[in-house]
Write a structure and sequence with these properties.
There is one protein chain. The chain is an alpha+beta fold and about 150 residues long. Helix content is about 25%, strand content about 40%. It has one helix and eight strands; from the N terminus they run H-E-E-E-E-E-E-E-E. The strands form two sheets. It has a four-stranded antiparallel beta sheet, with no helix packed on it. A four-stranded antiparallel beta sheet has the order 3-2-5-8, with no helix packed on it. A hairpin with a 7-residue loop joins strand 2 and strand 3.
Length: about 150
């Protein structure tokens, strides 16, 4: 009889060890799944609002005849300029410019020369204009944007 007791204790201990391994394996798998979920994510987090750079609407206009190379600033937090080569005149573009940047439009006439005028308006209000004349004539219009506390987009 003493042998049976020892065998049942050994069998019970092995069964308990297996149960512990199964539970441990399940916990390990659950932890690994949570880590992967955190690393890979599920996409955009709706709980945090998107941070947008406040902007102002700016209209650039170039009048005249023929063509001109036009450089202007658009919605780029880095302030990079956009260049339009040999744009047919008249030309205009309305863009959003980040507050804190200085909206600027520059024109350069070609070798045929001529006359062209640039104009700049911020939120529909005229700010500045300038005229380019002659061969490779140049003109630049710039202005200041309202402070960030004003009506922003």
């Amino acid at each position: 009889m003493g042998g049976e007791t020892q065998e049942s204790e050994t069998a019970g201990k092995q069964s308990g060890d297996r149960l512990g391994l199964v539970i441990g394996g399940a916990l390990l798998a659950a932890c690994a799944g949570l880590v992967l979920y955190g690393v890979l994510g599920t996409g955009k987090d709706d709980s945090t609002p998107e941070r947008r750079t406040p902007t102002a609407s700016v209209t650039y206009e170039v009048t005249g005849t023929g063509t001109a190379d036009i450089t202007y600033q658009a919605r780029s937090a880095s302030g990079e300029a956009t260049v339009v080569k040999a744009a047919a005149l008249p030309w205009h573009k309305t863009v959003d410019v980040p507050l804190g940047k200085e909206p600027t439009v520059s024109i350069v006439l070609g070798e045929k020369g001529g006359q062209a005028r640039c104009a700049l308006a911020v939120r529909g209000k005229h700010v500045q204009s300038a005229t380019a004349n002659g061969t490779f004539g140049r003109a630049t219009c710039s202005g200041m944007l309202p402070p960030a506390m004003a009506d922003t987009k």
